[in-house]
């Protein structure tokens, strides 16, 4: 039990109108034959959506509450699991708050506070990644407790 949180990225394939054989694909490695054995497949499916995990946190309540209070919509606020899409501006604001430390009385021995430069850098990189192609890329926070 406890809070598991993720910063996730999504990228949709921009050229959905391109012929299927010209789009990136994921091979279906093996299929099960009628006798129960597995045989190689020559099938490949077009990729429409790629989801990437940027960062994982365990029990980082300060960050969760910051996103819940500042960036969650009324429909997302206090939901479990909570999924909040973040704009590049939001990502940069969160990075700045992480660097300033989310809580002044936090124990600096806790990993969330000793690794905050790395966490802030990931939020900054996520903002840059979205700005590279805003129509096909998005970043969101997921908190589940």
Number of strands: 8
User: Shape from CA axes?
Assistant: elongated
Radius of gyration: 20 Å
- N-to-C order of helices and strands: EEEEEEHEHHHE
Describe the structure.
- About 30% of the residues lie in helices and about 30% in strands.
- It has four helices and eight strands.
- It has helices at about 60-70, 90-100, 110-115, 115-130; strands at about 5-10, 25, 30, 40, 45, 50-60, 80-85, 135-145.
- It has a four-stranded antiparallel beta sheet. The protein has a two-stranded antiparallel ribbon with strand order 2-5. A two-stranded antiparallel sheet has the order 3-4.
- Strand 3 and strand 4 form a beta hairpin.
- Helix 2 (about 90-100) runs antiparallel to helix 4 (about 115-130).
- The model has no long low-confidence stretch (mean pLDDT about 80).
Please describe the topology of this protein:
Elements: E1 4-12, E2 25-27, E3 30-32, E4 38-40, E5 44-46, E6 49-58, H1 61-70, E7 82-86, H2 88-99, H3 111-114, H4 116-132, E8 137-144
Antiparallel strand pairs: 1-6, 1-8, 2-5, 3-4, 7-8
Helix pairs in contact: 2-4
